[in-house]
Every structure is written in C-alpha cells, then in structure tokens.
Write a structure and sequence with these properties.
312 residues, alpha/beta, Rossmann fold, three-stranded antiparallel β-sheet, globular
Length: 312
C-alpha cells in the first residue's frame, strides 16, 4: 500500500506534565490554538495575556518586565484610545491611567502563572522586526502608525541567541522549577515574501538549536510536524497561512504523547469529553434527557477526580 505521508515522529519530551503544572503560552497566534485545546483537556493555562507577539525581542522584554515587577510602559496615545508598544492591538484603554492598570495587572497575572511548578511555552513567529525610531527598539505591534516611524530589520541568529540566553538564565534564577519550551510557529508570514519568510524561520530555528544545546531549555517540533508530516493544504484555513483545527488536533495528539503519561492522556481525554458535554446545547428542553446528562457529568467528574488522586 502506498504511503501518503511520513510517519508521525516518536518525540519524547525531557519531562512530563501533570494537572498541578501551570502552563503559560506566549508568542504567535499558534500559542493560542494549543492553549485553548490544553484548557479544554483540564490544564491550568494562560495564553498571550498581551496578545500575539511574533518577534523574539518584544517577548523577552515582556518576560523581563514580569519577573522584575517593572512598571515601565511605552504608551502610545492614539486619537480614540491608549495602547502600548509591547502589546498587540487587542489591548486598548480609554486613558493612560487605565492602560497602566491593565498592563500591570496582566504582568502580575503572568508572574503568578510562571511561579512555582510551571511550564512556559514560547512560540516564535518571525525574526523580521520593526524598530520604532522614536524608541530605538523593536516593537510588538506597529499599531497602524505611519511606515516612516519604523525601520524594518532582520534579527541575526547570534543577536537573538545572546539576548535569549541571558533571559533564560534570569528566568531560571527567578524560578528554578520553571520549565521552558520553545516552538516555531508554522504560520507563514507571507507579507514579507515566501523567500524572506523561509529565511526568517531558518534564523529562528538556528537560534533555538543553540539555546537547546547550551541552556536548560527544550524544543517541541510542531513546525516540523505540520510542514514535513501533515504537509498538505487541507490542514490549513482558507487563507492558506494558518493551520486549521484539524491540524491543531493532530499537533495536540503529538503533544499528549510527548508530555503526558498514558494515564494522564486518558484522564485529559475524559475531561475533554465532560467539557464537551457541558457545552452541549439541547434543541428541546427535555428534562429527563437533561437530568441524564447532568448525572453522567457528575459521575465522570467523580471518576476523573479519583483517577487524578490515584496518579498523584
């Protein structure tokens, strides 16, 4: 029988996750996709509290601000709202005071999530950044400001590696229990051109290889899995850029195999089914059927809690 794709990789992570581990996802929109499915499987997750950030440098600045309790914020006072250069367009406030409160609250929330037994998944999207001339720094989002306010630049492998190596050490010094996992976003940045996008991903990949070799970090191969195993446009949305839900589900199976024991995979799948049942909307208000569903959910929750207690 002919083979239509390469076999799924037998990737084994250097550590296992359990339901006591707090998961944080930051970076590309791919982070949100994996975080959402992790949440539905019972994990305590926090995803992109400052919106999607594609370039490595603004992510570094965010993490440093979090663990150092920094109150420094580069505000951008637009005509109708206030935002900041370290966040995506989704974070907007009516004035500077409210926006400062919003950002500081989100920093504290991420700090709590990263403390203690936790794992940070960082998904890098591109090494092509936009340097704000006024601030002389690469920003998380251009916020539709005039092009003349920025310089487009390619961050080099060693430039990114040197800064990331420093912040990895700072994170581990701040919390020795923190696990750090890097991933490369499979989302194509075609506005930069296909050739530029591929070179950008290559620079990121080389940087992450150095980090994995010389620091206590690891790498989850979602990029390689989608591009070299699934390798088909039927696993992408209509824009042909973003992986679709079917692709995300396949990546999640790889994630489970890599980070969860067989027992925890079973428990997480049971939790997912219960969450699906909770979200189920009946077409008719049949009280008997509703009671059956409620009873089933209660029994499943009791069984799940029992299995979690036995696995601890």
């Amino acid at each position: 029988m002919s083979k239509f794709h390469l076999p799924y990789p037998n990737y084994v992570a250097p550590f296992n996750l359990d339901f006591d581990t707090k998961l944080s996802f930051i970076g590309s929109c791919f982070s949100d996709s994996i975080a959402a499915i992790a949440t539905s499987h019972g994990f305590n997750t926090l995803s992109n509290p400052f919106g999607t950030i594609f370039h490595p440098i603004p992510i570094i600045e965010t993490l440093r601000a979090v663990i150092k309790d920094s109150e420094a914020i580069d505000f951008l006072d637009k005509k109708d709202f206030v935002t900041d250069w370290g966040s995506s367009h989704l974070l907007q406030s009516s004035n500077i005071q409210n926006h400062k409160k919003l950002i500081l609250e989100k920093r504290q929330g991420l700090k709590r999530q990263l403390s203690g037994k936790s794992c940070l998944f960082i998904t890098l999207g591109t090494s092509i950044g936009y340097r704000c001339l006024e601030l002389n720094k690469i920003v998380a989002n251009c916020h539709k400001e005039p092009a003349k306010a920025f310089i487009k630049e390619n961050s080099g492998v060693l430039d990114m590696f040197n800064v990331w190596e420093e912040v990895v050490k700072e994170l581990h010094s701040w919390n020795a229990e923190l696990k750090i996992v890097f991933t490369l976003s499979p989302v194509r940045h075609i506005k930069d051109g296909l050739i530029e996008n591929q070179r950008s991903k290559s620079r990121l990949s080389a940087c992450l290889e150095l980090l994995e070799e010389r620091n206590d970090t690891s790498y989850f191969p979602s990029f390689e899995f989608i591009n070299d195993v699934l390798r088909d446009y039927r696993f992408y949305n209509d824009d042909l850029i973003h992986p679709n839900q079917q692709a995300i589900n396949e990546v999640w199976l790889l994630f489970q195999q890599a980070y969860l024991t067989a027992q925890y995979r079973d428990i997480s799948d049971r939790i997912f089914k219960v969450n699906q049942a909770k979200n189920h909307k009946t077409l008719h208000e049949n009280k008997e059927e509703q009671k059956k569903l409620k009873d089933w959910i209660e029994k499943q929750n009791e069984l799940i809690q029992k299995l979690i207690n036995e696995s601890s």
